[in-house]
Amino acid sequence: MTVSPSPPPRRGRPAVLAVAAATFLVVTSEMLPVGLLTSIGPDLGVSAGTAGLAMTVPGLVAAVSAPALSAATARLDRRAVLAVLAGLLAAADLGSAAAPGLPALLASRVLVGVAIGGVWAIAGGLAARLVPERSAGTATSVIFGGVAVASVAGVPAGTLIGDLAGWRAAFAAAGVLSLAACAALAVLLPPLPGTGAAGLAAMPRVLRAPRARAGLLVTFLLVTGHFAAYTYVRPVLERVSGVDPALISTLLLLYGVAGIAGNFTAGRAAARAPRRTLVRLALLLAPAVLLFPVAGRSPLPAVALLVLWGVAYGGVSVTLQNWLLRAVPPDAAEPASALFVATFNIAISLGALAGGLAADTTGETSVMWLGGTLAALALVAATTRRKSKPTPSPTKQLHPKQEPDHAA
User: Which pLDDT score, from 0 to 100, does residue 196 have?
Assistant: First the structure.
């Protein structure tokens, strides 16, 4: 792939932060309903499980739009594409805030899914075009840090706004911030001409790599399990653990702080040994979720389990991304990222859907059993050894002192 010359560092850093802000906002917008379901459902006259479709729809759309938009816009300036997608996200969030009923809300969430898939798939490969080569590894971490931080901090922030001013205000705030991100991308990014072929023809080669297939399987199981449980964490905290509803936003904020700590801690370890790091995260995540229905029936142990859950899941995104990039040769990084985005978002959708069905049919505690079981299966998949040797990724080449992850 032909890469444009890197812009000066003084332009590179603000550009990287603008792209990170875009990834943060698309993932935050995707997951906003998690902390707002008990408000959205009654306001629109539907159950919490039905309101969970607001999580299912954008994830499925994102899974399709990630590879599709990457291919369809391959020859277009990436600055223009990202700015348009951020504008689309703003319109979708503002439309969600004004939705008179569930059909209108889901229509807006379809647009959110388009923005998620496009931004996430394109953003990951931009770091080397925005900063000098020596800084590309750090820039990539910052861009994907937007995804990780959104996963653990976006929901608490949206929940707090929802508690103070209503769920519609939370979506409106996300829309205003997305407009600001649109402007930042247009102003701060340098021209980024399209590079032609998007590399989609390399996807079969990615799927033939045993370690890549294993990474995608672990991604599917772990993310599905997490979102089956986490999408309905607010009803569980209120109705099972007996937590005062006024404290939910504070607890989710605590979860977010724990997740950010987990993200940075796991990020350093994953750069050296992603499989080993993922095993350790799953060893924390599965018990934390499985113990909720047993030990989490009072507020204090529920808070302790929630913090442990946050620490564990906070490192999942960056660790899985490192796993996939190290499982394929450098020239297959873009199709590997597209498959990762597709798998991740399918897992979000199916997790939210499965959790909704479980919550509506067998009660809130069943979502924890389901989520914990899938996390345990991910642990089993992650501990299965593969014979293929790890393939250095671009990030690894930038850090020659990294240790080989032989067990991967």
Answer: 54
Q: What CATH class does 201-408 carry?
A: mainly alpha
Length of the chain: 408
Distance between the two ends of the chain, CA-based, in angstroms?
28
Taking the C-alpha atoms of residue 406 and residue 403, their distance in angstroms, rounded to an integer, is 9
Q: Quote the CA–CA distance of 74 and 118 in Å, as a whole number.
A: 11
Domain extents in the chain = 11-198, 201-408
Dist CA 95 CA 101 (whole Å): 11
Top CATH class, 11-198 = mainly alpha
d(CA 405, CA 215) in angstroms, rounded, equals 13
> Percent of the chain beyond pLDDT 90?
27
CA distance 263 to 302: 22
What local confidence, expressed as pLDDT, does residue 1 receive?
Answer: 43
Same topology between domain 11-198 and domain 201-408: yes
Asked whether residue 401 carries a pLDDT value surpassing 80, the answer given is: no
Torsion 69-75-78-84 (CA) sign: negative
Q: Work out the average pLDDT over 206-229.
A: 90
Nearest-CA neighbor of 230 among 222, 63, 262, 196? 222
> Tell me, what's the pLDDT at 336?
77
pTM, rounded to two decimals: 0.74
Who contacts 12 (Cβ-Cβ below 8 Å, separation ≥6)?
Answer: 6, 130, 131, 132, 135, 139
Report which DSSP code applies to 153: I
Q: What is the DSSP letter of 245?
A: G
Structure tokens at 258: 């724990």
Amino acid making up residue 93: D
CA 238, 152, 321, 402 dihedral sign is negative
349 with 30: CB under 8 angstroms? Answer: no
**Contact at 8 Å (CB) between 178 and 25?**
yes
